[in-house]
Amino acid sequence: MAIASHPITAKAHTNIALVKYWGKLDQQLIIPQNDSLSITLDEFYSETSVQFLPSLTNDEVTFDQQRLADQASLKIRRFLDGVRQLAGVSERAKVVTHNHVPTSAGLASSASGFAALAGAASRAAGLKLSRRELSRLARRGSGSATRSIYGGFVAWQQGHDDATSFAYPIDENPDWDIAIVALVLAKQQKKISSRQGMRLAVETSPFYPAWITTSKTDFATVKRSISDRNFDLLGHTSEQNAMRMHALTLSSDPSFTYFNADSLQAMDMVRDLRLQGLHCYFTMDAGPNVKIICRGVDAPRIATAFQKRFGPDNVLVTRPGAGITITE
């Protein structure tokens, strides 16, 4: 197919992992060390428009209304090279993206960003990829992006090569009463990237083999809890899995952490709310921001408690979100 004659826009939502991916078997292909499972979020998303133009001599990337310099856009341009190779085109691209996610603060902005880029760039280059093919393509930009192609509960199959490592839906439209209260506790870029943190954990943490073993068990447990709609089993297992992941950062050499003082206080508040009879559990990805998994009926009360401590602008209630949409 020929390249599109007009910009193609894709919208993809970010996700939070309930069973984490932490560590790569293959750095180049981004093949993970274990299967993972996530929930796509409605409120956090990226919108990206792509057009391949014969008149361009270099890729032009505009991110949140700012034109990126060559070094800042290197990862995006390399991803576009992969799309060009796949589509058999040579034209440079004009990329315009807007993130409705705090970038690099632990809310997986790269997941929604590269999922949206995969959808828009592939279609603009004349490709008509299936969602599984889009998932494989998005993975080459960011591992967690492979899951943002789908909505609701999503699993990422570890696989062993480019063809077998992809995400698949578990329940794209969960109709049970589940919500997520997201706390934005820091908006600045984190000091240690996920890529750096994973490498350190794999290479130096003595607990890493145990992490792989327990993650496999957690994956099976959370998958079963979704099928059975067992909210407390899902929440408890997700919370434990998150703490085990962060134990890897503390046991690496040199040790590091994504927690800050507010993260620790938020986790204690969740535990206190549980003692008060509320069904809520926390999880954290590679950043200080805490996400609280709760029943939708309890979300307003939980959000109010955290708004009083962290301010209304830093607390957002969201629900399971949709998969990628591409507009031609």
From TrEMBL:
Pfam families in alphabetical order: MDD_C, MVD-like_N
Keywords per UniProt: ATP-binding, Lipid biosynthesis, Lipid metabolism, Lyase, Nucleotide-binding
GO-annotated biological processes: isopentenyl diphosphate biosynthetic process, mevalonate pathway
GO MF terms, alphabetically ordered: ATP binding; diphosphomevalonate decarboxylase activity
InterPro entries (alphabetical): GHMP_kinase_C_sf, Mev_decarb, Mev_diP_decarb, MVD-like_N, Mvd1_C, Ribosomal_Su5_D2-typ_SF, Ribsml_uS5_D2-typ_fold_subgr
Top-rank lineage group of the source organism: Bacteria
Coiled coil spans: none
Domain Diphosphomevalonate decarboxylase-like N-terminal span(s) in chain numbering: 12-167
Record's GO cellular component terms: cytosol
Mvd1 C-terminal domain ranges (all copies): 181-313
PANTHER family: DIPHOSPHOMEVALONATE DECARBOXYLASE
Family: Belongs to the diphosphomevalonate decarboxylase family.
Name of this protein: diphosphomevalonate decarboxylase
Gene source species: Secundilactobacillus folii
Gene: mvaD
